[in-house]
Amino acid sequence: MTSSSTWAATLCVLLSSTCLAQSAFAQVVDVPPPTRYQVDENDVDVARGLYTGSRRDMVIGQGLGSLFFDVKYGQAPGTSLPGLVSSVGGGAIWTAITGFTSHSFSLSGSTFTSLDGSGATLVKSGSTYTLTESDGTKYFYGYTVSQSGEPAGTARASAVTYADGRKVNFNWVSTVYCSNNRDGCAGGTYGTAVRLQSYSNSNGYMIHFDYSADDADFSALLKYWRQITKITAINLGVDYCSPTAFACTGLTQSWPATTYSGNNVTDALMCVIELVMRRARQCRMGSGMM
Predict the structure, then answer these.
(1) CA 119 → CA 84, 97, 115, 216, distances in Å?
(2) By residue range, what is the domain housing residue 240?
(3) Which is nearest to 275 in space by CA: 3, 79, 45?
(4) Structural domains of the chain, count
(5) DSSP letter (8 states) at residue 218
(6) In what order do the strands lie in the sheet with 44-45?
(7) pLDDT (tens digit, 9 = 90+) per residue, 222-259?
(8) Cys staple from 146: which of 49, 135, 150, 240, with CB 3.0 to 4.6 Å?
(9) Whole-angstrom Cα distance, residue 242 to residue 205?
(10) Phi and psi dihedrals of 45, rounded to 5?
(11) Is 208 helix (H, G, I), strand (E, B) or coil?
(12) Angstrom distance (rounded) from CA 218 to CA 221
């Protein structure tokens, strides 16, 4: 089954608290979600007093073994599950995005100390950060390719494991682009952009993203490189797709898909992976969480 949606602003796909504004080299702004997130029966984010609506655009599987993609829109911008680890205020404070909530830590030497009293811990081993919440859920931030303008040491979520053994893997790709369209980038500057290509769980399901463009040699093309046109849910036990493939080819079945079109292609704030759309939408991804 295929459905379509036309949005007045770009589709966002989780996993950070930030996005780049019109300039490809704009300073990244860090606006983490609240430490505690709760929505009441009227769809109001009680932490911030803002209305949020939601819909489920994709799901495959059932119960705790399912994999889904939710869109949350309204007055409370934010992201879903999970995000990135990044420094705030010159490196003394670090924030770990876990979805609609976040955790804050101070850093002294190599020791992170919680600032929110949630019981969560953060440690770094090599280049990977591990956030452990009080219920045993572990977030691994191991994708260390940073976008231009992000603080040093920024890392994106590469996996989440739950206390019952379930696991979700997040698969990222990056591109190098020039700030202008001149031969050899003469007079310009090279930058790096990152996007989420797919995520999959230990039950064998994948959600894959197709984008308007798979090449972005210069900054003017980045909005197309980040622009989602389709999401597809696949049972990897039936059809395999490489986690970082731009397109899933050779599928033997027509899998559930949702397509997107409209003004999102030309929206100046291209927040497909990084979200700071202060008027706009939230997205949620997860596994077995209804």
Answers:
(1) 19, 15, 10, 42
(2) 2-287
(3) 79
(4) 1
(5) B
(6) 44-45, 50-60, 67-74, 281-287
(7) 989 988 889 999 999 999 999 999 999 999 999 999 88
(8) 150
(9) 12
(10) -70, 105
(11) strand
(12) 6
216-220 long-range contacts, CB within 8 A, separation 24+? 216/175, 216/177, 217/177, 217/178, 217/181, 218/177, 218/178, 218/179, 218/180, 218/181, 218/188, 219/24, 219/25, 219/177, 219/178, 219/179, 219/180, 219/191, 220/181
Distance (Å, whole) CA 66 – CA 61? 4
This prediction's pTM: 0.78
Interatomic CA distance for residues 34 and 98, integer angstroms: 10
Return the SS3 of 142. strand
Distances (CA, A) of 142 to 12, 124, 129: 21, 10, 7
Strands 2-7 and 121-125: unpaired
